[in-house]
Design a protein that fits this description.
Number of domains: 2
InterPro entries: AAA+_ATPase (IPR003593), ABC_transporter-like_ATP-bd (IPR003439), ABC_transporter-like_CS (IPR017871), ACT-like_dom_sf (IPR045865), MetN_ABC (IPR041701), MetN_ABC_transporter-like (IPR050086), NIL_domain (IPR018449), P-loop_NTPase (IPR027417)
Pfam families: ABC_tran, NIL
CATH superfamily of the largest domain: P-loop containing nucleotide triphosphate hydrolases
CATH topology of the largest domain: Rossmann fold
Distance between the termini: 47 Å
GO molecular function: ATP binding
Strand content: 25-35%
Shape: elongated
Bound molecules: adenosine-5'-diphosphate, magnesium ion
Low-confidence stretches: none
Strand order of the largest sheet: 6-7-8-3-9-10
Domain ABC transporter: 2-242
CATH class of the largest domain: Alpha Beta
Organism: Rhodocyclus gracilis
Length: 335
């Protein structure tokens, strides 16, 4: 659906050129939730803003459903933007307008609806984001999560095909973040809406994204299905981002432990099977779980745990082979 082909963009500050993104190529499929992660200054906002031409790339092409958006006429671009919603970290609501008026604003701009149609659509959107009773309130009377719900309702007003999210949950507390992410996922599924979201938090990626791209200093360094990138990060910056969301040691030394240590990665239903117990019984070794996480990547269960094998009978090669039958990955950690 979206094909980004070798785009670059720089800014000029005090006569000095600052590259923001360099030679980025990406493909986003219709209906997926595509995440872009990177630390502050990596170029995420610049990249996502090129998708509705809030920033125009210096070079390269962006094709959406086959047509190059950088060549659209003014009218065509306005129409395209109407079908591309965007939400922001700081919500960008108009503080002098009520919730209802904020949501109505893009409908008015579209100039295609009667008053009654706009009223109906605003009510429909308020229901969708569960803000039924808040139509006549002002943004200042709302919590952060409620403000972002208004932002989402406004972004969806004209039935967009694409929703761009620039750090949409970064200003929210963890619980509110979860509820906004659930809402985004629900919208993605109900309406088949394509979502491109940028974040600096791997947990956001883990919760709702199908695929992810990692940006570092304007360059795309890694890209793939979320489970692959999260469980087997290749690039140093990706490892650092994963480590932040679920710390795990890479060596026995870092854990302050010696003896045979294994890091096991499970994905899917096997995550909930008593593998440790079975292998322990079969090989007559004990296991000490020294670190780990069990959770979900979107809906898929996963576990990544580090175990220490106990007892004289512990033969690392045999243990690794036994784990290898169940785990998607079994790494012996250097001690
Ligand atoms: N409007 C701007 N003017 C000048 N430099 C900018 C502007 N916007 C972003 N930059 C610079 O471009 C780089 C990428 O920024 P940005 O796309 O905002 O990254 P991110 O969203 O990942 O934090 C940074 O070095 C930033 O300072
Ligand atoms: Mg940004």
């Amino acid at each position: 659906m979206i094909e980004i082909d070798n785009i670059s963009k720089h800014y000029v500050v005090d006569g000095v050129a600052i590259p923001a993104i360099s030679g980025i190529s990406l493909r986003v499929e219709a209906g997926e939730v595509f995440g872009i992660i990177g630390v502050s200054g990596a170029g995420k906002s610049t990249l996502v803003r090129t998708l509705n031409l809030l920033e125009r790339p210096d070079s390269g092409r962006i094709r959406v459903d086959g047509s190059d958006i950088t060549t659209l006429s003014k009218d065509q671009l306005l129409r395209y933007r109407r079908k591309t919603g965007m939400i922001f970290q700081h919500f960008n609501l108009i503080s002098a307008k009520t919730v209802g008026e904020n949501i109505r604003f893009p409908l008015k701009l579209a100039g295609e609806y009667t008053r009654a149609e706009m009223d109906r659509r605003v009510d429909e959107l308020l229901d969708l984001v569960e803000l039924g009773g808040h139509r006549d309130k002002y943004p200042a009377q709302l919590s952060g999560g409620q403000k972002q719900r208004v932002g989402i309702a406004r972004a969806l007003a004209n039935h967009p095909k694409l929703l761009l999210c620039d750090e949409a949950t970064s200003a929210l507390d963890p619980q509110t973040t979860q509820s906004i992410l659930s809402l985004l996922l629900d919208i993605n599924r109900r309406f088949g809406l394509t979502i491109v979201l940028i974040t600096h938090e791997m947990d956001v990626i883990r919760r709702i994204c199908d695929r992810v791209a990692v940006l570092d200093r304007g360059v795309l360094v890694e890209e793939g299905v979320v489970a692959d990138v999260l469980l087997h990060p290749q690039h140093e910056i990706t490892r650092a981002l994963v480590q932040e969301s679920c710390p795990s040691a890479t060596t026995g030394q870092r854990l302050g432990l010696s003896g045979p240590l294994f890091r096991l990665t499970f994905l899917g239903a096997v995550t909930y099977q008593p593998i440790l117990q079975r292998i322990s019984a079969a090989l007559d070794v004990g296991f000490n779980i020294v670190e780990g996480v069990v959770g979900r990547i979107k809906e898929t269960p996963y576990g990544q745990i580090t175990v220490q094998a106990l007892g004289d009978a512990a033969d690392p090669a045999r243990i690794a082979a036994a784990f290898g039958e169940h785990a998607v990955r079994c790494e012996a950690l250097p001690s």
